[in-house]
């Protein structure tokens, strides 16, 4: 299974998830609203394959990058809006961590009503 296949499977398990292409990349969002994950592969020739997810903001982004700069990075264009990149091309991807980060990103993107409806 490719990294995109695995990310897609996790993302599409989220309540009311949908997928579209944006800027040539698969994007996962809630209904026709908020984006909660991007699949990024060699974006602008950076050589990185990653999932991009929302964080609680700059403090969490900085903490993640400081904790493991080989895994986490601030993605171009999206980092100022609180997104973090998680590499899935290193050969030792922790898919349970990816799943947890996608689920958390969904919760950050969802409305309070949706979070309540789905127990998040």
TrEMBL record:
Molecular functions per Gene Ontology: DNA binding
Pfam families, alphabetized: YjbR
SUPFAM superfamilies attached to this UniProt entry: YjbR-like (SSF142906)
Keyword Nucleotidyltransferase: no
Keywords: DNA-binding
Xref: InterPro entries: YjbR-like_sf (IPR038056), YjbR/MT2646/Rv2570-like (IPR058532)
Protein name: MmcQ/YjbR family DNA-binding protein
């Amino acid at each position: 299974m490719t990294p995109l296949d695995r990310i897609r499977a996790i993302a599409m398990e989220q309540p009311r998830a949908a997928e579209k292409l944006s800027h040539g990349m698969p994007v996962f969002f809630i209904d026709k609203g908020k984006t909660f994950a991007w699949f990024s592969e060699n974006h602008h020739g950076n050589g990185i394959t990653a999932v991009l997810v929302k964080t609680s903001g700059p403090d969490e982004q900085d903490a993640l990058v400081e904790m493991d700069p080989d895994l986490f990075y601030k993605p171009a264009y999206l980092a100022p809006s609180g997104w973090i990149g998680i590499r899935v091309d290193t050969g030792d991807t922790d898919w349970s961590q990816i799943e947890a980060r996608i689920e958390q990103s969904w919760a950050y993107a969802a409305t309070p009503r949706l979070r309540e409806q789905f127990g998040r």
